[in-house]
Amino acid sequence: MKNIVVLTGAGMSAQSGISTFRDSGGLWENYPVQQVASIEGWHSNPELMLVFYNQRRTALKEAQPNKGHRILAALEQHFLVRIITQNIDDLHERAGSTHILHLHGELTKAQSSKDSGRITHIGYDPIEWGDKAADGSQLRPHVVWFGEPVPNMTKAIQWTQEADIMIVAGTSLAVYPAAGLVDFAQDNIPLFLVDPKPAPVRKNNLYVIKEKAVEGLEKTQKILIENYL
Ligand code: APR
User: Fold this and answer.
1) What is the gyration radius of the CA atoms in the chain, in angstroms?
2) How far apart are CA 194 and CA 197, in angstroms?
3) Cis preceding-peptide flag for 151 (omega within 30 of 0)
4) With CB atoms counted within 10 Å of each terminal CB, which end of the chain scores lower, N or C?
5) Pocket test for ligand 1, best of 16, 22, 67, 69 (most atoms within 8 A of CB)
6) Is 225 strand, coil or helix?
7) Closest CA relative to residue 161, chosen from 48, 76, 82, 107
8) What is the rounded distance in angstroms from the CA atom of residue 156 to the CA atom of residue 221?
9) Closest by Cα among 124, 122, 144 to 133
10) pLDDT, tens digit, for every residue of 123-153?
């Protein structure tokens, strides 16, 4: 089986009704990113951030995987598909994908605010001020905020270097180190870039599919089945 690595971003879940960050009307237009997505923000106003992520967790509970998520899961019939996602939602899991690496954390988990390795599963429940981790510290969302390290990058680079085919779907490639993964893909492997407003990518064997995730992955699936089995 050929090995496909998929890098996904917020655009992957847009057709499931979840906002992206940098599009018009996106989250960062409505919320001051430093106050709700940075470690400084957590130190200065943790209750504001708990409310922000509780609202996102409630929205996630109402959302469903879209056909794009399901196509990536279905591709596992013919390929080894490994998904590296910047998304903190659980829609790839709910769609049935089996190899998923979250770079920026997961909304359905909480962690100690003293020890990032102390992680608990909370599903769609809220985290309230005063909720304690086993080490007695305040519980916080298991999300990687600006200014924090990205522990899963080493494995993500390995997955990318081992891939025969790469798909990049629904990401502005604006945030590093995630955006740098494209450069770790072997030179001449086919790279499918699925996005209605694709970011500039310099790769030899590039397929730019200027479509939304569902329509773009339908096209990608067709090309893969016809040419890369
Ligand atoms: N289908 C596919 N792509 C879409 C769709 C759609 N329906 N709608 C929008 N897009 C594209 C946009 O054109 C854009 O390129 O999705 C991308 C969304 O970009 P961002 O909002 O910047 O999201 P992302 O790339 O995931 O952001 C990276 O930044 O804020 C941090 O931690 C956060 O993980 C996030 C990281």
Assistant:
1) 18
2) 9
3) no
4) C
5) 22
6) helix
7) 82
8) 22
9) 122
10) 999 999 999 999 999 999 999 999 999 999 9
Residue nearest to atom 26 of ligand 1 (CA): 9
Mean pLDDT for the chain overall:
97
**In which residue are the tokens 């019939």 written?**
77
Distance CA 101, CA 154 (A): 11
- Percent of the chain's residues with pLDDT above 70: 100
Q: What is d(CA 193, CA 40) in angstroms, rounded to the nearest whole number?
A: 34
Joined tokens for residue 212: 């939304």
Amino acid symbol at 75: L
Q: How far is CA 61 from CA 92, 126, 156, in A?
A: 14, 11, 27
Distance, CA 211 to ligand 1 centroid (Å)?
Answer: 13
Number of alpha carbons in the 13 Å side-chain half-sphere of residue 103: 24
Contact of 213 with 169, CB cutoff 8 Å: yes
Query: Which sequence positions are flagged as catalytic?
Result: 104
> How buried is 5 (Cβ within 10 angstroms: 0-12 exposed, 13-18 middle, 19+ buried)?
buried
DSSP character string of 60-119: HHH----HHHHHHHHGGGTEEEEEEE---SSHHHHHT-S-EEESSEEEEEEEESS-TT-E
The binding-site residues of ligand 1, defined as CB within 6 angstroms of any ligand atom, are 9-11, 14-15, 20-23, 26, 86, 104, 170-172, 174-175, 195-197, 212-213
pTM of the model: 0.97
